[in-house]
Design brief:
The complex is a heterodimer of chains A (115) and B (117). Chain A has strands at residues 4-5, 9-12, 18-24, 35-40, 47-54, 57-60, 68-73, 78-83, 92-100, 103-106, 110-114. In chain A, strands 2, 4, 5, 6, 9, 10 and 11 form a 7-stranded mixed beta sheet that branches. Chain A starts with a strand and ends with a strand. Chain A is built from no helices and 11 strands. With 117 residues, chain B is an all-beta fold. Helices cover 0% and strands 52% of the residues of chain B. In chain B, the strands form 2 sheets. In chain B, strands 2, 4, 5, 6, 9, 10 and 11 form a 7-stranded mixed beta sheet that branches. In chain B, a hairpin with a 5-residue loop joins strand 5 and strand 6 (57-59). The chains are: A mainly beta (115), B mainly beta (117). The interface between A and B is medium-sized, with 24 and 23 residues.
């Protein structure tokens, strides 16, 4: 079982909200990790969006709009990225990451389609 | 302005060696942890290696013993020496700077490494 699991794809309509999940493997306690989120568009390097540890300990990437927000869901042991007011420009691949005992670990990525 | 520029990629035969460079500007390399991240064609991101401020290093299991990360503070350059290359090492290799919270807050454009006979 991978350390981080992300849905392969997600579709949402312009103006709606998209909720992307990043589920930690059973036995890895979400509470002890900062979850990082990256956006990648075709033929471009990834872009740092934000990271979330707790409501009082989180950071937004430089120039990243506030409609991108992070959180955690303890009940599902998952990090959450919510993108509100979806725009066509948000169509991209989204990756989560944690720093684990074995180094940095990326999730497999979610392809977000805005249609 | 922070800038990272990778170079050194190319076509190499299995078993061969290659050294990638990441030229940094706009900040002091020695004051940041620096990483290499790779992406195989059509695949997701994979962390490769980190060099910490004091020079300590760490590697993904998939490259441990074959790759070596280093840094030349005087040249503001980070390197990735890749030996015993395998076809599965084929990827775009990105250089990434870490922030104080360990986010990869700046990335280069990447350099393509193709391992094939």
């Amino acid at each position: 079982q991978p350390v981080l699991t992300q849905p392969t794809s997600l579709s949402a309509s312009p103006g709606a909200s998209a909720r992307l999940t990043c589920t930690l493997r059973s036995g890895i306690n979400l509470g002890g990790y900062r979850i990082f989120w990256y956006q990648q568009k075709p033929e471009s390097p990834p872009r740092y969006l934000l990271d979330f540890y707790s409501d009082s300990n989180k950071r937004q990437g430089s120039g990243v709009p506030s409609r991108f927000s992070g959180s955690k869901d303890a009940s599902s042991n998952a990090g959450i990225l919510v993108i509100s007011g979806l725009q066509s420009d948000d169509e991209a691949d989204y990756y989560c990451l944690i720093w684990h005992s074995s180094g940095a670990v990326f999730g497999g990525g979610t392809k977000l389609t805005v249609l | 302005e922070v800038q990272l520029v990778e170079s050194g990629g190319g076509l190499i035969q299995p078993g061969g060696s290659l050294r990638l460079s990441c030229a940094a500007s706009g900040f002091t390399v020695s004051e940041h942890y620096m990483n290499w991240v790779r992406q195989a064609p059509g695949k997701g991101l994979e962390w490769v290696s980190v060099i910490y401020g004091g020079g300590t290093t760490d590697y993904a299991d998939s490259v441990k013993g074959r790759f070596t990360i280093s840094r030349d503070n005087s040249q503001s350059t980070v390197y990735l020496q890749m030996n015993s290359l395998r076809p599965e090492d084929t990827a775009v290799y990105y250089c990434a700077r870490e922030s104080s919270t360990r986010a990869f807050d700046s990335w280069g454009q990447g350099t393509l490494v193709t391992v094939s006979s």
